[in-house]
Structure formats: structure tokens, C-alpha cells
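Lab notebook, bench 4. We co-purified these components, and the gel suggests they stay together. Before we commit to crystallization screens, I want a quick structural picture of the whole thing.
Request: model the full complex, all chains together.
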Amino acid sequence: MSTSQDVITPERRAWTRREFLYALAGGIVLASGVSAGRWFFGSHLRSETFVAKMNGYGGDLSGVMINGFQELGLSSSEIHGKRILLKPNLVETSQGAPHINTHPLVLRGAIEAFLRLGAATVMVAEGPGHRRDTLAVYEESGLADVLTEDHIQFHDLNYITGHTITNLGRQSTLRTLTFPALFLEVDWIVSVAKMKTHHWAGATLSMKNLFGVMPGIYYGWPKNVLHHAGIENSILDINATLKPHFAIVDGIIGMEGDGPIMGTPKKAGVLVMGRNLTAVDATCCRIMGIDPSKVSYLARADDWLGPIDERSIQQRGETIASVRTNFSLLEHIPAHQGVRLA
Amino acid sequence: MCALRANGLVQHSRVLDGVRLLMDRQLPHGGWNYGNTRVFGSELHRAPESTGAALQALAGLVPSAEIRKSIDYLKTEARRVRTPIALGWSLLGLGAWGEAPKEAPDLILQTVERQQRYGAYDTSSLALVLLASAAPNGILEVRI
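Here is the predicted assembly.
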């Protein structure tokens, strides 16, 4: 994340002559009332995702992740010296329901993988959406024991100094967004999400996971300001403004049915990774038997924040067909209606 | 609510609104969370810190029978939790209803000692659990 500017500006390479001509044409189209951004940028969005089969949490998770990094072109020269912040999905804890949260061993695997690639530091940070007592979630989820043993720092993002910047997404009426000032001190933000259905959003994956970076002392519990501004709008605003660098989704045991809290465990047996969160989430949806184009925030992110079209996402590792396992959807939940992938 | 009550404004309209709101948001099986009770037919999970804060605010303002399930839940939770915010609010909420567990001092000590393993608590969390230690009958009974 930029440390020198209040507003995070999108990275943009120099335009080619062809792009310039497209832009010129796009401007003409815009003047005629058609969405030039989607028309112009859409054909350029390509991404890669990596899918690994994992039968359980006892395997060599860091080795699998490093293999994924290599498949995705993530080299040690790119990671060397970087300060990496891992953002898990820790919402709340409930006895007998560890599938609510990102498994601690997935975080341990990611920590080891980034350190082996030469990261200067790796830290874990989260602001749970449902609990005022972050420490309780941290300990009861089992993450505290893992990070304490590994001497990795954990940051509570709910009670933390904020840093306010312009909302670059402009999907909600929020003109600014307040992120943790801690983010000014890191180079990479990695969403380490859980593969779950969601009763409001359809599915919660790496993009929705970033709700948890918004400090509770500014946005309330369960991030009320963002719910009021619209869940889908807020997902898009946060991602467009924060520009996270990488995603790892824990689908080894996910959640189906009435997610993100009250659903039942679903063994999908996969880890999904990629640089583009929209593409990663679209791939996860397909693995879950959900059509990403029917998940509203992904459809809106398409051709803007990333691709969701299967033809625009190069699949590394396992094929989607080989790991697809339909997550149960509930008929009485509107966000689940009509989203099943054919 | 506690601030208004501590200043003698127990009949203030905002206190009365608060009572109505909290009783409306009490979970059917007892306890409170961040404010929702049911979504799509499922009763949501409760949290000790939210339950303790609600019970502290309601102390003496509603019949005890109406919050009995919440008290029972919290008495179990208070013996289980070992983090300062959850334990602090649990003890304050129970204490305000005269139901603080006898072993509260030991629970507080065990919680404070966990800093040796997990690192120092932030000031406000530590202050809360120490306040619970100094206020066995809840915040409104504290005399400084």
C-alpha cells in the first residue's frame, strides 16, 4: 500500500497507441450514453487462479502455497523484503463450528510460504464483525496458539487508529473510507478468506472478507455503516479503494446453507489462490456450483475490478470440473435463488 | 444508559428507549449479540460481552424473570471465558443482578495472567477487567 499519498491511485502502465485510439473511441461512446469503462477495459481483464486439492489441514500447506505462487508467477524477487499483512476471516466463534473462520493452519501455511519467499515480515490482522472482544475470537478460534508459537504479530483492526481516504469505488454514498493506519506500514495485503455461502451476498470469499478490515470503532458492529450503505456497494468500494494484492481461500472445509455463521460444514477439499480477488472469487463460486454472474457484486465487479468470465481466467493446478462440489443453497434466501451453476 | 442512570436520570426518555430496545433484542434462548436475534429463521449466536453490557444497563429496570435465561447463560460463560472484555462485562452484568460468581477474583487473576502467554492487553481492556474486580455489584454501585 502506498505510504506517500493519502489517496491510493490505481497502478496503470503506459498506454499503447491502440489503447489510446480505443480510449478516444470510448470517449465518443461515453458521450452517447454507453458505459465506456466497461466497454473499454473489459476486453483487457485477464487473470489466473490456482486451485489445489487438499484433503485436510494436516498436509504441507506452505508447500502447496509455494507451488501455487510459482504457478501464478509470484517469485521471491517480488516478495523479498516486503511487509505482508494477512487478513483472515474471523467473525465469531461457536463451539462445534470451526468452519465459520479461516483455519489457523491455513494462516500458518501462508506465513511460512511468504517468509520462505523472503518477506521481511508477515503479520495477521482482523476486526471481527460480530464480537466486541476480538481477543476472544482470536483465542477461541485457535489462531492465538498458532501465532504465539510462530512469534507472529496479531493486530486487532476493530480498535485501531484510522486513516481516511477518498472512496475510489463510488458505488455507495460514502465519500471516504477509513482504513487502519497500520496499512500505511505494509506492502502487501492478502485476503485469506473462507469459502462460504452468505445469506445476504450469495457467497462470501476473498472480496467480502475485506469487510473485516474496516475498524469497528468507526463502522460499528457488525460494520453497521457498511450494511446501511449496501453490502454489495461496500464490497466494491472497499476492494476498489484498498486494491488488495493477493487472495487465498480456505475451501478445505467451507460452509454451505445458511452462511456465513449458521450454515453447516462442507468439505470442498481445495485451496484457491490468485492475484486478482474477483477472479479468485469467480473460480470459487464455480467450485461451489454457483454461477458468479448471478452473484450481484461479482457481476458488478466484472470487467472493472477483475474478470469473472471463465474464458478470461486461466486455470492453474486442478480443473474446476475435477473439484466442483455443489454447496447447498436455501430456497427461502433470496440471495441463493437462481444462482446455481448449470 | 449507565451514564444517565449514574447521574440520577433513570426516568430519562433515552433510558426508557434503551430498555425497550434491549428487551426487543434479547435472544429467545437468552443473551445478546450485536443486535440481531433471527435471520431467515435461524436464531443467531450470543456473546458474553454483549450480554454482560446489556444486563448491566438493565439492572433493576426489568423483572428478573424476563432476563433469567440471559443470567443463566452468562453464569456459565463467566466461568469459561478468559479474555478481559468478555470476562469484564460478564462479571459486571452478573454483579449488577447480584449473581457474580464467588470465584470472580480467581477468574480475573487467571485472565490477567494470560498476558504472559499472549502479550500485554491494551489499556482499555485491562481497565475493564480491573473495574470488574473493583465493582462486584456492577458499575452503578462503584464508589470512588
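Chain B has a mean pLDDT of 95. Worth comparing against the SEC data before the next meeting. Residues 68-80 of chain B form the longest helix (13 residues).
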